[in-house]
Amino acid sequence: MRLSRNVRKLMLFVHTAASVGWFGGAAVLLILLSGVVTGDLRPESAYPAAERVGAVLVVPLSLLSLGSGLCLAVGTHWGLFRHAWVAVKLVTTAAMATLVLLVLTPELRVAAEAGATLPVDEQGGLMIGPSVSCTLLLINVALSVYRPGRSRAARQAGKVRSRAALRPPA
């Protein structure tokens, strides 16, 4: 089933907004968590704030990004596995959303409950998830913009061949 033009544009807007919001939430987590590590922020206030950002912002936006991306892939000519870059985006987004739910959110909850008593060696580890999320989300943006896979010459050659195949035999 193909999405109508208006629905496709709406889904593209939702997908882009959710992904940008997810990136922003991950960046906020990095700021809060690095503030604790550097001593600029107090853990008893930064960790509960980080837990709320994770639960209220990052979790829903990660799921919305995944869901809207799936709708766009299935409902447009890009398809789920027709192009490698779409498949890579799907796999990385699904993996990140899963890790947000199963790893990051519980770790932030533990940190919020522990506050200043969280061991120092665990404080820096909390920044790994948001750092990886920011990096992979930027890679997904690059994949969307550059759409790697075929050269311009190969695309042009494919267009010429497909036009020739559509002509009736003489």
TrEMBL record:
UniProt keyword Transmembrane helix present: yes
Record keywords: Membrane, Transmembrane, Transmembrane helix
TM region(s), chain numbering: 12-33, 53-74, 86-105, 125-146
Protein name in the entry: DUF2269 domain-containing protein
Lineage summary: Bacteria, Bacillati, Actinomycetota, Actinomycetes, Jiangellales
